[in-house]
């Protein structure tokens, strides 16, 4: 699914209205109906809590007025509060104001004293500003928003939390509505996918309003959201006459004393992701553990008991994953250096292998083209330096991928894949239960297996993060978030593959 900027969203709205001969007012009605459908589902028994709808002067405010009318028709106790317009109200705002039933109390807000009391039991609908915000909010509006934010009311934002830019950085001092829920139209917004905005956006949902699909597919955007649509087109069926050689031979270089568990997790995930053959190169101390815990994998041991100091013959492998549990022993550093200087096989690089590379500019420059790096934010910071904010981090991601011709999976709640072509793919699966040790090792195993099966680097990253998160979501259905372990992701990879394969049909 493509992600559009605020300007592109406006263009998509305008094109849809013109091309499909739908008045913009009808599009607004669709948006309001979609909002109300979601709202009724969420708060369906509740027709006593007062609903305070705050409307700005633009189309977002117009949505608010249409929502007020529809909720009133569904017997919700709504009240409307309207901001003064600096110049004029948007035409569709005015049209919806005229359609507002007289029974709905409407109040114009000029100063703070006009603002209503907002009790705990209230539901606030924030329709002040949406994608048309063009500067930080100032003046009296900030007092209103501060009052909304300091109340214990449930806050539902229409399209965007007011004050939050759709696609640009907000300063920490900017005044922004802190919504519990954001119901947004047609496509996710970049702002929803960045960790720093979580406290404003809350739990977000997208509802379709029928914007022109052809227009959206033609418009150029570097930003994509990975929902089931993209992975379903990537997953390949296993041919009837295939054999284990068809699905590649992966090598996993992993482990050090006390961290063989990371190797076990990564190896199991690799095997559960369809690889034909897997060999693990680990410290000698890991031999019995691996042969017992992962009998399907072949094990090669290092001459050292507790860390890896040497490389096996690499010539027979068509995918190499390195990093989980590796440690940073000087001999291990040398091994990583040697690997980067001798192989042109793209690597899947995680954990301490990333930390070793981060400490040496020459190693970054020696990355084989099309390698995949899977840092969490701290590891990423070691690679690129500190980001000033979430948007700057995206710039650093792009620069790094372009400079080193590699793919980076910047892990997080919405893991973001950066590509050498400058695209960004944000993952939509996964949950906070996955914020637990070992889940990253599982991802390394999955992506290494997909590379061994000849998926392109980009496809392996997309399918990998999607299946990894999907396995986490399936595990969550059984056991919730607190008890979730990295092993549970491996247990549920089969179901995640199945679910994805049903979507390809
Ligand atoms: N255009 C369409 O066809 C549709 C638009 N929709 C709604 O329209 C919204 C976008 O509407 P608009 O483009 O009118 O924009 P907004 O309603 O977000 O805000 C624009 C208005 O706010 C003013 N403004 C911007 N920043 C300000 C600031 N910091 N302080 C004070 N005033 C400020 C602008 O001058 C303008 O008057 C979407 O978020 C969505 O809610 C939906 O109804 C779907 C269809
Ligand atoms: N809140 C979250 N929501 C969704 N996924 C998450 C969340 N927190 C972590 N994850 C996922 O879990 C994994 C954690 O990886 P990492 O930090 O490397 O763990 P480890 O080093 O312990 O294996 C990543 O794939 C990340 O995207
Ligand atoms: K809003």
UniProtKB/TrEMBL annotation:
Q: Which residues form the YjeF C-terminal domain?
A: 227-500
- A molecular function GO annotation: ATP binding
One GO BP annotation is:
nicotinamide nucleotide metabolic process
As recorded in UniProt, its EC number(s) are 4.2.1.136, 5.1.99.6
Residue intervals of the YjeF N-terminal domain: 9-217
The residues the record assigns to binding (6S)-NADPHX are: 59-63, 130-136, 159, 262, 325, 376, 441
Role, per record: Bifunctional enzyme that catalyzes the epimerization of the S- and R-forms of NAD(P)HX and the dehydration of the S-form of NAD(P)HX at the expense of ADP, which is converted to AMP. This allows the repair of both epimers of NAD(P)HX, a damaged form of NAD(P)H that is a result of enzymatic or heat-dependent hydration. Catalyzes the epimerization of the S- and R-forms of NAD(P)HX, a damaged form of NAD(P)H that is a result of enzymatic or heat-dependent hydration. This is a prerequisite for the S-specific NAD(P)H-hydrate dehydratase to allow the repair of both epimers of NAD(P)HX.
Question: Which reaction does this chain catalyze?
Answer: (6R)-NADPHX = (6S)-NADPHX; (6S)-NADHX + ADP = AMP + phosphate + NADH + H(+); (6S)-NADPHX + ADP = AMP + phosphate + NADPH + H(+); (6R)-NADHX = (6S)-NADHX
Residues holding AMP: 411-415, 440
What UniProt keywords are attached to this protein's entry?
ATP-binding, Isomerase, Lyase, Metal-binding, Multifunctional enzyme, NAD, NADP, Nucleotide-binding, Potassium
Annotated residues that bind K(+) are located at 60, 126, 162
- NCBIfam families from the UniProt entry: yjeF_cterm, yjeF_nterm
**Which cofactors does this gene product need?**
Mg(2+); K(+)
Record organism: Adhaeribacter radiodurans
Name the protein family: In the C-terminal section; belongs to the NnrD/CARKD family.
Matching HAMAP family = NADHX_dehydratase, NADHX_epimerase
Q: How does it assemble?
A: Homotetramer.
Name under which the protein is recorded: Bifunctional NAD(P)H-hydrate repair enzyme
